[in-house]
Amino acid sequence: MLKQQQGEVWFITGSQHLYGEETLRQVDEHSQLIADFFDKATQLPVRVVFKPVVKTPDEIYAICQDANVTPACVGIITWMHTFSPAKMWIRGLSILKKPLLHLHTQFNRDIPWNDIDMDFMNLNQSAHGDREFGFMLSRMRLNRKVVVGFWQDSAVVQKLADWSRVALGVHELKTLKVCRFGDNMRQVAVTEGDKVAAEMTFGLSVNTWGIGDLVAVINQMTDADVDRLVQEYADSYTLMDSLQKGGTQHGALRDAARIELGMRAFLQDGGFGAFSDTFEDLHGMAQLPGIASQRLMADGYGFAGEGDWKTAAMVRVLKVMGAGLPGGNSFMEDYTYHFDPHNPLVLGSHMLEICPSIAAGKPSCEVHPLGIGGKADPVRLVFNAPAGPAINVSLIDLGNRFRLLVNEVEAVEVTEALPKLPVARALWKPMPDMATGCAAWILAGGAHHTVYSQNLTTEHLEDFADIFGVELVVIDRQTTLRQLKNELRWSEAAYR
């Protein structure tokens, strides 16, 4: 399993010295209670760390500086319990590099109608203290998440949990190393992209290693390790007869296991979190990595085929965001359509490499011919994805900017046997309908490769795009082509 960092977000409350020490003591106590409440909430995938109340420009600058250089800190939550003059925040906010969530809440849920006095009013001023802070964030053109509501409400806690997942994904992308085994598939446009611009925008580094370097590691894997992994395959999946020990194609299973062991060792030694390969560059390999790529994805690695490093990176990021939630995230491709006017569907699949984290049941381990690549028949896991809501996500390079494209879909049960299609597959209905959804995707320049997510929502990706300041285009139940075309025109002007 690819190790994921246990992150933390800092809970920072703003106030000032105007109200006296007793008020500041109460602000500190209330803030610690709120931070502790969030820290104990099981929905949040991070620690919530209380930080002492900040009251001066120097204190604010220091806490922002500390957040920037603390590796475990993936973001900050800010709240103005009292009125905190926002000019105090300028220096600190100007250097802040971590995602920011502005929590607009107050310590008390209800107004104490019979007891409220000016002391109470001086203490509980977030209704306008947060507006002062919010103005400065807007004045400085800083992107942030704003969550409004009483801090103990389940909806508020869930909003913080969702944003925390995004903050973890943002942190991952800023430090992600993507390994490209070989180059892009020849003559394909959308898998290309500006790797320098990507590192400047997102932080990830993308570099290529030759297939010969990988093959050298694969050839070092011992027979004993291959034996162990082959047994793991047998215990985890339903092996077709020819792959079982003594079967006519058992050697193909051993080849696949050796490839997985070598790829895993190469990625671990290099500190990579995502990788891509291409069937056009397999020199020295026995078969195209099928089950290896599937199982590495299931363990948290990002992957995409044909050298598509952008999608590989996003697979890893969405896996980090969705870690611990029911459902999975996988490399995916819109493969073919079912244009039945009463039941239009998209069949999503790929040659081999769909992640079993999205499987409806126990996968079958099979080997079948592959008409491209020029190598031995590759081993792969075959399964169906279950019904339920999902999203397809595509990161595309438009030359002058990156665009993040999201289509909400409704997956349906795969009821046909598909006996001659030995690949993993999913069926879905794109929102708002087949004709509009597909046309909108094409108008927005969406790629044929996507990340298919069962456990994340459009709001996760909206927060992600906001943090990085990249364009977001959403295709959902409310989308019309007229409105979408206008949004694309506006975006061209905004990002020119």
Short description:
This protein has 496 residues and is of the alpha/beta class. Helix content is 38%, strand content 21%.
Description:
The protein is an alpha/beta fold and 496 residues long. It is built from 15 helices and 19 strands. A hairpin with a 6-residue loop joins strand 11 and strand 12.
Descriptors for this entry?
single chain; 496 residues; alpha/beta; 6-stranded antiparallel β-barrel; 15 helices; 19 strands
State the total count of DSSP E strands: 19
Distance between the termini: 42 Å
* Mean pLDDT metric: 96
- Major beta-sheet overview: 6 strands, antiparallel, barrel
Q: Would you tell me the structural class of the helices and strands?
A: alpha/beta
Helical segment count: 15
Helix content: 25-40%
Strand content: 15-25%
Strand order of the largest sheet: 11-12-17-16-15-18
Radius of gyration: 25 Å
Uncertain runs: none
Shape: elongated
In terms of topology, how is this protein built?
Blueprint: E1 8-14, H1 21-40, E2 47-50, H2 57-69, E3 73-80, H3 90-95, E4 100-104, H4 118-123, H5 126-139, E5 145-148, H6 154-175, E6 177-181, H7 195-202, E7 205-209, H8 211-218, H9 223-236, E8 238-239, H10 250-270, E9 274-276, H11 291-298, E10 302-304, H12 309-322, E11 329-338, E12 345-349, E13 364-367, E14 379-382, E15 388-397, E16 402-412, E17 425-430, H13 434-443, E18 449-453, H14 458-468, E19 471-475, H15 481-494
Parallel strand pairs: 1-2, 1-3, 3-4, 4-5, 6-7, 6-9, 8-13, 9-10, 16-19
Antiparallel strand pairs: 11-12, 11-18, 12-17, 13-14, 15-16, 15-18, 16-17
Helix pairs in contact: 6-12, 6-14, 8-10, 9-10, 10-11
